[in-house]
Amino acid sequence: MNANYARDMESMLGSIIPLDQKAMDDAQHRLDSLTKPQGSLGKLEAVAKQAAGITGESIPDLSRKAVIVMAGDHGVCEEGISAFPAEVTPQMVLNFLEGGAAVNVLARHAGADVMCVDIGVNADLEHPLLVARKVRKGTANIAQGAAMSHEEAVAAIRVGYDLVAELSAKGTRVFATGEMGIGNTTPSAAILIALAGISPEEAVGRGTGIDDARLLHKQRVIERALQVNAADPADALDVLAKLGGLEIAGLVGVILGAAAHRAIVVIDGFISSAAALIASRLAPLSVSYMMGSHMSLELGHSRMLESIGLAPMIHMDMRLGEGTGAVLCFHFIDAASKIMREMATFESAGVSKE
After folding, report:
1. Which of its termini does the chain have fewer beta carbons within 10 Å around, N or C?
2. From 3.40.50.150, 1.10.357.140, 1.10.1610.10, 2.40.128.100, which CATH number describes the 3-59+340-349 domain?
3. 182-222 pLDDT tens trace
């Protein structure tokens, strides 16, 4: 890999530090002083404590939230692994930009911004709200060779990292990972197999809803991609470049950027978790800045979360992607924040602890 890109990776990874223990201790002290039995709000208390450690503040302002939707196409669609044609990717990007997709609706409901990024769509797109950061027009077919070069993978990571830096400077402290790219469950499953060492039967799901015959074909395509590329499981960047997608690489950057800028990053479903798995191998400390959102119906997602070390907040039988599950969990983060900020303590309410 080019020395400049290697230094760029080092600069991004070197900015990530452990969570603030004092802020977490202060948050725990406040939680224990609130008018309730200790620990009785369960995961809400865990969210509040983690948020304190991430931000370095016992009661942080988490009102500014954003979902970053990375969009990219995949050459492996040539193999017929999706129920939808690749042309749907640019069509859906325009739907995001017009505010008509599911993630737009849920983000409005959660009071969050949606940033749609063209990082690798195989089309020329123009829209006043589009964030144009195209690294290349789609990846190559992973069944025939590497998805992209290592330099392109690092460039895509840098896109996500810099966008988080820009939003963080404006006060955004909670991010969700969103994506759009027809065929992207295929590279995601390949990443899982390469890094977790599980079988295609355990990792490869139906994506957009393929039938049994196409599912078997999809497994075989992924097996071929793994053989052709021989990615090094000890080198997450090599796995990403050879088997991944541009939107997955962009989300790796979002996750690393959130960790570097002491912001919460809520991980969505299977594709977002593939990015989180790569990020966890590149920078193990970044996992502390992640929150798992939901358990996707996509086969392999539970194994993906286990490999990262994340637990989902909710089980809603979702498998849409876009960031929808992550944005739903913004409400739980808001609830935890309000508990810390608004709930009375035993002392302030004059309630006896015993």
Report:
1. C
2. 1.10.1610.10
3. 999 999 999 999 999 999 999 998 887 888 898 899 999 99
How much is the pTM? 0.97
CATH code given to domain 65-332: 3.40.50.10210
Do the beta carbons of residue 185 and residue 205 sit within 8 Å? yes
Structure-block tokens of residue 313: 């907040």
| Buried-exposed string 111-143: b where 16+ CB fall within 10 A, e elsewhere | ebebbbbbbbbbbebeeeebbebbbbebbbbbb
Q: What is the DSSP letter of 344?
A: P
Which of 322, 342, 347, 354 is the catalytic position? 322
What average pLDDT does range 41-49 have in this prediction?
A: 98
Phi then psi for 80, rounded to 5 degrees? 70, 45
DSSP state letters, 110-141: HT-EEEEEEEE-SS----TT-EE--SSSS---
Looking at the chain, the whole-number percentage of residues with pLDDT higher than 90 is 93
Are 278 and 191 within 8 A, CB to CB?
A: yes
Could you confirm whether 322 is annotated as catalytic?
Answer: yes
Q: What is the pLDDT of residues 119-168, one digit of tens each?
A: 999 999 999 999 999 999 999 999 999 999 999 999 999 999 999 999 99
Task: Give the domain ranges of the chain.
Answer: 3-59+340-349, 65-332
Measure the CA–CA gap between 340 and 67, rounded to whole angstroms: 24
Would you say residue 1 has pLDDT above 70?
no
